[in-house]
Structure formats: structure tokens, C-alpha cells
Amino acid sequence: MSNVLSTSSKRKSGQTPSEMLSRYFDKRYDRWVIKILPGTQYITRERNEMLTTTLGSCVSTCVRDARTGFCGMNHFMLPGDEDCDWGGAGFSLRFGHFAMESLFNAFFSTGSRKEDLIVKLFGGGNVIESSQMIGDNNARFSLDYMSKEGIEVASHDLGGRYARRIHFYADSGKVQRKFVERSDERQDRVAKAEARYRSSLTGNESDKDSIELFDENED
Fold first, then answer.
1. What is the arrangement of strands in the sheet containing 31-35, beginning at the earlier edge strand?
2. Which DSSP string do the residues of 119-183 spell out, in sequence order?
3. What H or E segment, with its residue span, contains residue 73?
4. Which residue has the higher pLDDT, 219 or 188?
5. Whole-number Å distance between alpha carbons of 206 and 86
6. How far is C-alpha 112 from the chain's CA centre?
7. At what angle do helices 134-149 and 96-109 cross, to 10 degrees?
8. Where are the domains of the chain?
9. Across residues 202-207, what is the average pLDDT?
10. What percent of the chain has pLDDT over 70?
11. Sheet with 117-123, edge to edge strand ranges
12. Over residues 150-159, mean pLDDT
């Protein structure tokens, strides 16, 4: 098995995972780039791949198992809990509790053990104007979840006021993080997209369109 993908996109009859991926070859990095959109996850052991996403208040978990060679990432918007009315697996991946369980179960299905996993957490920026401090809540949930599950966090970059762009290299497990300045129009786009996205989640609306949070050619 080379790739495992879970996504919030609706599957058509006979549709294969490769048809649902936002995947392209980037000559700058000399590797295939997999874009992890909100409510999706992806794991791979293809060495020539880079997983990438842009995070505002959302959180992504980057996981690598050096023993088996698998690495993976998720991207969720709200913490959620065991009692959520998930509304289907695709919808559920947008919530932290389900997204975390789904990602780690995917690793365990490949033979990974907790003690083998190198886990890094990113995101949780307070980019949405709200008294609820959504980013802080997501960051706190992520650390609490790892603690309760007995999973060691190798490093984390959570909170603050900025959106982040993440590059996760499958061959080495290296993560590059770049802040998006608040004066940058991309920060405003991320905040507005997440606000619309959060509204659709809390309103339990159906999944109609994917939300694009960054352009393929952004640095």
C-alpha cells in the first residue's frame, strides 16, 4: 500500500482516491504537492511528496512514523467531541475529535505504534474576529487530546494572530512554517473563508463546495 486518503469530498461511483486529490508537480521543490483542504486527511509513504496547507484558526496535525515510512496530515476547524452529531464521516473530519481519531487510526492500520509516531501541531491562530477565540480553543483541544491519548508531541507552533502556511516533507518529516502577515491580503482571505466555513459547520449545512484557502503558486 502506498497511499491512504480520507476526504470530505463526496465519492462518485467508481471514483478512486487519486481522482479526488488536489495534487500537482512543483518544479521548485522537485516533488509532488498534495494540498490538504479543511475537513480532509492524507497519509502516504511516497518519498517524493510534500503535504501542504494554509491554516488560520484551523489546526493541522503532522505525523511521521520513521519505522514504517508513513507520514500524514489532517486539517480541522472546530474541536467537537464524542457526542457530536457527526452527519457522516466526511462532515466529521472537519471536527477535531473525529479528525484526530481518524488520522491516528489510519496510521495504526499500517502497523504504526504510538511510541513510533513523531507528532507536530500547527495553526490555531486567532485570525477570525470573535470573542470565542476559536484558534485558542483549537490549540488547547489539540494539546489536551494528545495528552489524554498518551501521544507525545515532538513540537508545536500554535496560537498567535497570524495565518500559517505549512510544508510537510514526506521523506524527512521536516516541516516548514511561514507566517502570513496580517497586512497581507491572503490573511484576510483565509479569515473570511474560515468564517464562512465555520458558519456552515455550526449550521449543519450540507457539503456543497470545497473551500480554497490558498493558491497553488503562492510561496
1. 23-26, 31-35, 49-55, 163-169, 175-180
2. EEEEE----S--TT-HHHHHHHHHHHHHHHHT--EEEEEE-SS-EEEEEEETTT--EEEEEE-TT
3. strand 71-75
4. 188
5. 12
6. 19
7. 40
8. 21-202
9. 47
10. 64
11. 3-6, 40-44, 71-75, 59-65, 117-123, 153-158
12. 96
* pLDDT (mean) for 64-76: 95
Q: All 3 cell numbers of residue 55?
A: 491554516
- The CA distance from 24 to 125, in Å, is 27
Contact residues for 12 (Cβ-Cβ < 8 A; gap 6+): none
What are the phi and psi torsion angles at 5 (to 5°)?
-130, 135
DSSP state of 60: E
What number of helices (H) and strands (E) belong to the chain? 5, 11
Length of the chain: 219
For residues 52 and 16, what is the distance between their CA atoms, to the nearest angstrom? Answer: 21
Q: Whole-prediction pTM value?
A: 0.77
pLDDT digits (tens, 9 = 90+) for 104-145: 999 999 999 999 999 999 999 988 666 568 899 999 999 999
| Architecture (CATH level 2) of domain 21-202 | 2-Layer Sandwich (3.30)
The pLDDT-based confidence of 80 (bands split at 50, 70, 90) is: low
